[in-house]
Amino acid sequence: MKRIIAFLMAFLLLASLPAAVAFAQPPKVTVIKAARVLDVRTGQMLANAMILIEGERITAVGANVKCVWQSIKPGSTVMFFRSMTSAFAGTATFAPGIGGVNGLTLSVPRQTLIGAKNARITLMAGFTTVRNLGAYGYSDIALRDAISAGDVPGPRIIASGPTLGITGGHADENYLPFEFRHKADGVADGVENVMAKTREIIKYGANVIKFCSTGGVLSLGDDPKAAEFTIDEMKAIVGEAHRLGRKVAAHAHGGEGLKQAVMAGVDSIEHGTYIDDEGIRLMKEKGTYLVPTIYLTEWFMENYEKLGLPAQIIAKAKEVMPAMKKNLTHAIQQGTPVAFGTDAAVYPHGLNAREFAVLVRMGMTPLQAIQTATVHASKLIGQDDRLGAIEAGKLADLIAVEGDPTKDVTTLERVKFVMKGGAVFKNQ
């Protein structure tokens, strides 16, 4: 499945704020007065706290208002947010956003334009940093750069570019008849070729590498239980990506393809539908993150008749979806490391936060679900030094909701305030 996964969320509960400041540049100093600030590491709430932000970074957080106020340098321009009655703050991100539901039928320019729309929707849903896995024509890299330049609003994007895959596999274009002789951008076979393809994708700007170690669901001619790529090919991809400083994500539904990807050293497994006890043991042993993307199962079963998909794909999905929830629940309960991710692009962007409630129904506490999108997600993408918590030195990525997400995680589906890098993008 072509996916965008969302990471790192910043959380802040409030009741009222001044009028919205849309797509503003961060002021020199911002002071946020919050009734409560959540420490996402411990679950403790800091009451009557102030958050001091200089430029794009948090410089102080504390309940000692005088101490925080005295930290402001003389002559600074200050923007002051008052009247926060219920402030819960965490940190920043993951949610997804580019591409249409039926990406195979869209041109690359059209995908990029749709991506810009979805990036804005994703940011307004409270996701300030996302990892996008799989995009045609490097459209996610173009969108990442446009957001970084301030051309369009959106979350920070850790972009993969095209997904690596075998000929005829989940990452290939299997809808066209043979006379077109067409292969997808990321198709490569053999150790030397996958190394070259990894280098090529990095050459064109990828921050992270994604490959398919098993077949998928929303594709023709492949089996989600069957391995794709040999173990030597997987080791070559992972070794080359890591040597060049990139993390590696493997699309894997289960079986030997999942286990071999873990043994090859990938940083995360996407989906994990048929994960078994041996796969769980390996992931815990290696510290490999599982990204469940589980809300998709509920949305798809309610909406598949509207999607116009081939009968073979619908039949495959109906077999996979029930197994996914059962096996992933077991993996979570066994303590497999989990990071937050979604399959938005298959379902509409803006619904990303519904993943939290599903994680809670599968056995997590609300705080544990929140941690998958903050401390765990930031560690997975290698940016826990600047994302993942409301702490001095971190980027000022904050969201605000009414209520207490540690008691009712569905409040995260109704975000009222979004700040990314010290700039306010949403303020209701």
What does this structure look like?
The protein has 428 residues and is an alpha/beta fold. The chain has 2 domains: 9-91 and 386-427, Roll (Urease, subunit C, domain 1); 92-380, Alpha-Beta Barrel (TIM Barrel), CATH 3.20.20.140. The chain has 12 helices and 14 strands. It has helices spanning 65-70, 108-124, 139-148, 191-203, 231-243, 255-264, 277-286, 295-303, 311-333, 354-361, 366-372, 375-380; strands at 3-9, 29-38, 45-54, 57-62, 78-81, 127-133, 156-159, 208-212, 247-254, 268-274, 289-291, 398-401, 415-420, 423-427. It has a 4-stranded mixed beta sheet. It has a 4-stranded parallel beta sheet with strand order 8-9-10-11. Strand 3 and strand 4 (57-62) form a beta hairpin.
Summarize the structure.
The chain is an alpha/beta fold and 428 residues long. It folds into two domains: 9-91 and 386-427, Urease, subunit C, domain 1 (Roll); 92-380, Metal-dependent hydrolases (TIM Barrel, Alpha-Beta Barrel). It has helices spanning 65-70, 108-124, 139-148, 191-203, 231-243, 255-264, 277-286, 295-303, 311-333, 354-361, 366-372, 375-380; strands at residues 3-9, 29-38, 45-54, 57-62, 78-81, 127-133, 156-159, 208-212, 247-254, 268-274, 289-291, 398-401, 415-420, 423-427.
